[in-house]
Every structure is written in structure tokens, then in C-alpha cells.
């Protein structure tokens, strides 16, 4: 595999493992756990893996000798995130430390490869090509959901054939929910297979007190912030465009908030605040238009607006509409598939409640059609396909025309639109993510060696130097609640939303009026891999502020 000069230099980078993991470790049990909500329902669904204790690893002064080799399978599930290769590298090195004869098998193209018995053995020669690189191309990823007994039994066949004692699923909240279900089933039937999860998502919504951040968030937001900074530099140079920039984050606004803290744009919409304040689409448009008009009054006909990908679902009226749409299209999928595309809006409108029909038919035709597009594997509208940034830009333009007619807007308003998503998902990991991901994988090997199942790899204390991080695991059921999916209540990991009382949001809220009026852009520049720690090894500002 050909490599760039940077990749060659990165290939020799040695992730800085937490000191506790540099020798033999022992698992120390903490307090028993409960799910974050719906305790009785979750307990009934997971009788064998509910209520397990938290685990923390400590140095073992009297380790047992002569551990047997362990065969492990690994799956990359869902969308890509920087650092996935380092999780696999850490897992590989961790099981080889247990016994040099341990073997690692990668299932190809996600959970589908597990079910269909498509796999490859990951040897040192293969692993060494992918250390500290971005992407998931070592084995590929996919979005097949592991949720049926038939899938579990089919997967168990290949696990038994390869003598695999443990399966590591690297994924986001839904993938780790599937890991918990699989762990419960294998425990129930005494399959002798452990299941361990690793927290992956650039969206940043898979976290809690003991999962401080999901991997990939740090790198992705730094990539986006570099490009936003470049746009802001261009914006401040030409002084004639308003840039509307949509950022990934369907279920939470962590990416938009982090990029705002790094770049200081004129406007950043936080979906969670929109919902909390029960703002309408017109409220958001009026807010942006007022900022544009105020800057124009100072002769500044330019600026930047950051928009979270999932904003539309957080507007209360739109959220209710989408919820009804999801249920409608889930229960009538077959009939809807035969409706002529030119008649879909009319077909949907005729089956909605009166209040949602009124909202739906008032939307621009393009947005209404986008809301009717095929759902994602979890039954949700694919909000990334809704051009929210263009919708807002066009609505702001109409609002400014009204202000101009009333003499309240005297400037010019020219727009450019951007959506940053895939640009950040496969970047070479930052030093933070390289270290964090390697530690997550190595830690997963320790959880396996300790005989645990139904746990998520947890590395904490992330604002400290990586050698001081603490490691362990938390039961996946601890993070779960019941939510409506495909028209039914299902157990899922609870998504972590932006905390409006948290320090990161308060830092943003305290400055946004000043950023709106003035031009205080920051230009973060590209990720730095070599140089002083204060330049190269810093975590995200979100993580820093949360732990101040």
C-alpha cells in the first residue's frame, strides 16, 4: 500500500499508553449499576447482563503466569470515525501481550460480514500498515443491524469454527445497543462468547460520566474547524458573502458547538436550545436575519452561520411532524413504495393529523419531498439529505426583503452554502484520538482477559496527559433506556445531548452576542502531529471545559 510522506512518518508514531496498562492489570469491581432510565423494562430484557458492576483496572503485583491464547473477532459498525484502525491495533497488541499465539479476525464490511461468515485474519503485517491512519478500510464497515436470533445463531457458527472466544464491536449508540443484545443472548444460551463494545461516533453523542467522549469527535471537529476557519478567512477578505455551513450531528449539536468554540462564527444554532425554547422555524430565521441586518448597518455584509445537521428535528412542531411521518411510513411502507413520486406529498398529507398536515403542506416542496425519502436503518428520517442550510438561507433572504421594504435593512445579502460531513470521518487521527483509540482497543483486550461480557471499553481522565488516563469498563445496559423505533418501543443507548447548563454551552452563550456583532473569527489551521504538546496533544475544547 503506497503511503504519503506524512503517513510514513505517522506509521512510526507510538501511541502513549496509560501507565496502568504497561504491565499486568487486575479488574477491580466498583458499585453495581442501573440503567439511566426505564430500569424495570431494561432489567427484564437483560436478566443476565443487567446490574453488573463498573470495572477499573489497577496494576497487578502478582499476575498469573502462562495465560492461554485467546482468539478474538472484531467488527467495525456504522459510519467511519478517525481512529478506528488504532482501536484494532490496540486490541491486536493487547491480545498478543496475553499470549503471542492469540489471533485476531476481522469481519468484513461490518455486522453483515459476521452474519455471512466473511472474514480475514489480521496479522502483524496487515496491522502495521494501518497504525495511526484514518478510515475503516482495514476490514470495511456496514450498517447491518444485529437484532434477530437467526443472525446471532448464524454468527455463532463462525465464532465456533474459528474458536473465537470474544467479539469486539466498534460502533456508536445503536451498534453498541446491538452488542448488548448479542452479549445477553450468548450469555443466556451459555455460548461461551464474550461481547465487548467500543464507543465510536464523530457526533459526540455517545458519552456519559464514564465515557467522557466517543472516539473520532476530536479529529473530525478539528478538520471541520480548519475548513470553517479557511472559509472565515476568505469571508473576511472578500467581505461580500454570508456562508451557511451545515455540520454533521443528527441527534445532537456537539459538533456545531465545538466548531463554534474553536472558530467564533457570527451565528451558531444549537438544536437543543431551539427545542428547550420551543422556537419555530420563523424564530430561527428572524434571529439570523436580525444579526445580518445589524452587521449590515455597520457596513459588514458578510459572515458565517453554523447549522447542525439535525436541526429540523429539534424544532418542536417539526419534531412532532417527523415523528408522525416516521410511524406513518413505517406502518405503510409497502403501500408508500408504490405511490408515484409526483403524488407522494398529497398521499402523505391526506394521512396526517390536521395540525401536522398544515405544517407539512406549508413547507417548500423540496423540503416536503426530502422528509418523505427512505428512512435510515433505525426508521428515522435521513436529515443529512435535508438541505437545512439552504432552507434557512432562502428564508432569511425573504425576511430581509421585508425588512428592506420597511427601511430596516440597508445592506446586501449574498449566500454560499456548504455541508461538511464526509470530509472529517476518515481523517488521520489527531494525537489525542490516536492515543485514545489505541488505549480503548488495548483496554478491550484486558476486559476480555478478565472474562467480562456486555461491557463497553472505558478510558477516563482524558484532559490529563494520556499516560495518566484510567481504564476499565462499564456495563452497556447502564447507558440504556426505552425509545420508539419503527413504531415500537425498543431498548437503546440513550444519546447524550448538549447540556444547556454545561460549561461548554455557557462559554458559547456568554460570547455569541459579541461574535455576532463583531468579526472575531479564529482560524485554527490544520491538525498538528509534531511539535509541543500544547499544540499537538490537546483534547477538544468541549472536553476541556467539561472538566475545568
Automatic annotation (TrEMBL):
<keyword id="KW-0808">Transferase</keyword>
<protein>
    <submittedName>
        <fullName>Diphosphate--fructose-6-phosphate 1-phosphotransferase</fullName>
        <ecNumber>2.7.1.90</ecNumber>
    </submittedName>
</protein>
Amino acid at each position: 500500500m503506497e503511503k504519503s510522506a506524512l503517513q510514513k512518518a505517522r506509521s512510526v508514531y507510538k501511541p502513549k499508553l496509560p501507565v496502568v496498562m504497561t504491565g499486568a492489570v487486575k479488574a477491580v469491581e466498583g458499585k453495581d449499576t442501573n440503567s439511566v432510565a426505564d430500569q424495570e423494562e431494561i432489567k427484564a430484557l437483560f436478566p443476565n447482563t443487567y446490574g453488573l458492576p463498573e470495572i477499573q483496572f489497577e496494576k497487578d503485583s502478582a499476575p498469573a503466569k502462562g495465560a492461554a491464547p485467546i482468539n478474538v473477532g472484531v467488527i467495525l459498525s456504522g459510519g467511519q470515525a478517525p481512529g478506528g484502525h488504532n482501536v484494532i491495533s490496540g486490541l491486536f497488541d493487547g491480545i498478543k501481550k496475553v499470549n503471542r499465539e492469540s489471533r485476531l479476525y476481522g469481519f468484513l464490511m461490518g455486522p453483515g460480514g459476521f452474519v455471512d461468515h466473511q472474514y480475514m485474519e489480521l496479522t502483524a503485517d496487515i496491522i502495521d500498515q494501518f497504525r495511526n491512519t484514518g478510515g475503516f478500510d482495514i476490514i470495511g464497515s456496514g450498517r447491518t443491524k444485529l437484532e434477530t436470533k437467526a443472525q446471532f445463531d448464524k454468527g455463532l457458527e463462525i465464532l465456533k469454527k474459528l474458536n473465537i472466544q470474544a467479539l469486539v464491536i466498534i460502533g456508536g449508540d445503536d451498534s453498541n445497543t446491538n452488542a448488548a443484545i448479542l452479549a445477553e443472548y450468548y450469555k443466556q444460551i451459555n455460548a461461551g462468547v464474550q461481547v465487548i463494545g467500543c464507543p465510536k461516533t464523530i457526533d459526540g453523542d455517545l458519552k456519559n460520566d464514564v465515557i467522557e467522549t466517543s472516539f473520532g469527535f476530536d479529529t473530525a471537529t478539528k478538520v471541520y474547524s480548519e475548513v470553517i476557519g479557511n472559509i472565515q478567512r476568505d469571508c473576511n477578505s472578500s467581505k461580500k458573502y454570508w456562508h451557511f455551513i451545515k455540520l454533521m450531528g443528527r441527534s445532537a449539536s456537539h459538533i456545531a458547538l465545538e466548531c463554534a468554540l474553536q472558530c467564533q462564527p457570527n451565528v451558531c444554532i444549537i438544536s437543543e436550545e431551539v427545542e428547550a425554547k420551543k422556537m419555530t422555524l420563523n424564530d430561527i430565521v428572524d434571529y439570523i436575519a436580525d444579526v445580518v441586518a445589524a452587521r449590515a448597518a455597520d457596513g459588514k455584509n458578510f459572515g458565517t452561520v453554523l447549522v447542525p445537521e439535525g436541526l429540523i428535528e429539534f424544532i418542536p412542531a417539526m419534531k412532532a411532524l417527523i415523528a408522525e411521518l416516521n410511524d406513518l411510513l413505517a406502518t405503510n411502507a409497502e403501500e408508500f413504495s408504490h405511490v408515484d413520486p409526483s403524488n407522494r406529498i398529497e398521499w402523505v398529507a391526506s394521512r396526517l393529523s390536521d395540525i401536522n398536515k398544515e405544517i407539512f403542506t406549508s413547507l417548500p416542496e423540496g423540503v416536503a419531498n426530502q422528509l418523505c425519502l427512505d428512512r435510515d436503518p433505525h426508521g428515522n428520517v435521513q436529515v443529512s439529505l435535508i438541505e437545512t442550510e439552504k432552507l434557512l438561507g432562502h428564508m432569511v433572504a425573504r425576511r430581509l426583503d421585508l425588512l428592506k421594504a420597511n427601511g430596516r435593512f440597508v445592506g446586501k445579502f449574498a449566500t454560499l452554502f456548504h455541508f461538511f460531513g464526509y470530509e472529517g470521518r476518515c481523517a488521520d487521527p489527531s494525537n489525542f484520538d490516536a492515543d485514545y483509540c489505541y488505549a480503548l482497543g488495548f483496554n478491550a483486550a484486558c476486559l476480555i482477559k478478565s472474562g467480562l461480557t456486555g461491557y463497553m471499553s472505558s478510558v477516563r481522565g482524558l484532559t490529563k496527559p494520556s499516560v495518566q488516563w484510567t481504564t476499565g469498563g462499564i456495563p452497556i445496559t447502564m447507558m440504556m433506556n426505552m425509545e420508539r423505533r419503527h413504531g415500537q418501543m425498543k431498548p437503546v443507548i440513550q444519546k447524550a445531548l448538549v447540556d444547556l447548563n454545561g460549561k461548554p454551552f455557557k462559554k458559547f452563550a456568554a460570547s455569541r452576542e459579541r461574535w455576532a456583532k463583531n468579526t472575531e473569527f479564529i482560524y485554527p489551521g490544520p491538525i498538528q502531529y509534531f511539535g509541543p504538546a500544547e499544540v499537538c496533544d490537546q483534547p477538544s475544547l468541549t472536553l476541556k471545559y467539561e472538566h475545568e
